[in-house]
Amino acid sequence: MGNKNTDLYSDIDLRIVVEDExxxxxxxxxxxxxxxxxxxxxxxxxxxxxxxxxxxxSFIKIDCFxxxxxxxxxxxxxxxxxxxxxxxxxMKNILEKSTSLSYQPTIEEVDIWRTKFFAYVHEVYRxxxxxxxxxxxxxxDNLRLSMTTAWYMEVGIQPNTFGDWSKLEGKRSKLSxxxxxxxxxxxxxxxxxxxxxxxxSMVPEFKRVHKSLCEKLGIEENPELVDEIINMxx
Length: 234
Prior knowledge:
alpha+beta, Beta Polymerase, domain 2, Four Helix Bundle (Hemerythrin (Met), subunit A)
């Protein structure tokens, strides 16, 4: 990978908030603006999107998002943000309101989480039976990601958007050492028996955190149904 400074491995998320009447002008010039910040090697970009991702020859990557002022609301996602330029104080006010917010999962979020976990368990089995091993491994990865979502919900941390592994491992992770250790153990090769064994090793922790979330939110745990669903593929 070369002798690159490891500090450069951190991505930079940049949010640009503009008044509604000039938003489209800023969006259309998103690539040109990114070129002002360094030598761009290539872009990840959709022309119609309100963001662009620029990769620089310094190995820095900037994810740049554009927002209309009317669409910016206080959010836990904005906590710990650093304001670079805010001539009107608009973002300072938003940030101050954001710092007082906290995250707690809703009943709907937990129900979506557990039913998707069940669905991925079944989908792993279906794909293995069809010899679609890469698909099965993709579903297994989503099961691992589902567990990190549950761990974050359990302690009141806003989970990542599903599919995003950012900051879940490494020095920026908010997971405990034992949770990171479990993630390492939940690794599998392409062998179907190994894939099933990994799912089996996930089940005890799934049941524990599922029970914890149900108790927190007053949701029916229904352990018999949980066993019935999981045992169909074990």
